[in-house]
Design brief:
With 230 residues, this protein is α+β, with helices and mostly antiparallel strands. The chain is built from 3 helices and 11 strands; from the N terminus they run H-E-E-H-E-E-E-E-E-E-E-H-E-E. Helices cover 19% and strands 32% of the residues. Strands 1, 2, 3, 4, 5, 6, 7, 8, 9, 10 and 11 form an 11-stranded mixed β-sheet that branches. It is globular, with a radius of gyration of 23 Å.
């Protein structure tokens, strides 16, 4: 008979409904996690000044020692505002190779392994510009086992474009909390060896003043182009 519901079918119905509800919640949760904008490595202090006494950081469930080496590096390697190169500087980041190459026109200036964002906190692809350079910054974020609290992150170069605003906190920076470059590791930023980050920091624009520890791009002092691709 059409529409007849037996005892057995009712039992199956009451078993299946909760399963469908649980499955639906899981799908929605994963979807929201995918479309929620990632905030990568923001900081609340843009002075760029190294903070003495910050000796402990926290990364992936472990305390770690914060090195003092950046405090000892003099500010005498800066590029002076107004001195320009006829060949455009630009940075290429290959997500599949986990490499960064810095170019002056078609001439290679620097190449290094990097660590970009984990699959659930990906580094965005596209063409960007450096909008701020911060000599040292405290960064805190992530969640669960990926929570981090990292004082004095050195040589930070934040980038943005019309689709990815600077408030999302994506940038390049030196890394003292791991040495496992060539693998995805970060919350969306591009982790570099400190020696490579230092060279890049003083090479890219916007140019720093001789005594500066932070600088923001402007029409007169624009930021270097960054191209990120797979």
């Amino acid at each position: 008979m059409v529409g007849l519901i037996t005892v057995g079918s009712r039992r199956q119905f009451f078993i299946l409904v909760p399963l469908f509800i649980i499955f639906g919640i899981g799908v929605v949760s994963r979807t929201l996690r995918t479309i929620t904008p990632n905030v990568a490595c923001t900081t609340s202090n843009f002075s760029g000044e190294f903070v003495s006494g910050e000796q402990l950081g926290y990364y992936q469930g472990e305390e770690l020692f914060v090195p003092e080496m950046i405090a000892e590096i003099p500010n005498d390697s800066v590029s002076v505002l107004g001195v320009t190169n006829p060949l455009e500087k630009w940075i290429e980041i290959d997500l599949s190779e986990q490499t960064l190459r810095a170019w002056e026109g078609s001439s290679l200036f620097l190449e290094t392994l990097v660590s970009t964002g984990l699959p659930w906190w990906p580094t965005p692809q596209g063409e960007f510009r450096v909008w701020a350079k911060i000599r040292a910054a405290k960064m805190e974020g992530g969640e669960g086992r990926y929570y981090y609290n990292l004082p004095n992150v050195p040589y930070v170069m934040y980038f943005e474009n019309s689709n990815i605003p600077g408030s999302r906190g994506f940038g390049l920076h030196g890394t003292y909390w791991h040495n496992d470059f060539g693998k995805e590791q970060s919350n969306g930023c591009v982790d570099l060896p400190i020696s490579m980050a230092e060279k890049l920091y003083f090479w890219v624009t916007p140019d720093l003043s001789l005594a500066g520890s932070s600088v923001f791009s402007s029409p007169e002092n624009p930021g270097t182009k960054i191209v990120i691709h797979e």
